[in-house]
Specification:
Blueprint lengths: L1 H39 L1
Length: 41
Amino acid sequence: MAKEFLGNAYHHEIVLGSVTVFFRFREDQNILGDQWQKGIH
């Protein structure tokens, strides 16, 4: 039971970490996109 719980907790940490990195990356891309568009106009 404990091993199962730890395995699930570990899995969730990985998933949450990936999602966090993904959204952070998207935010960075959006910021770059905004700056790029401002540079054009």
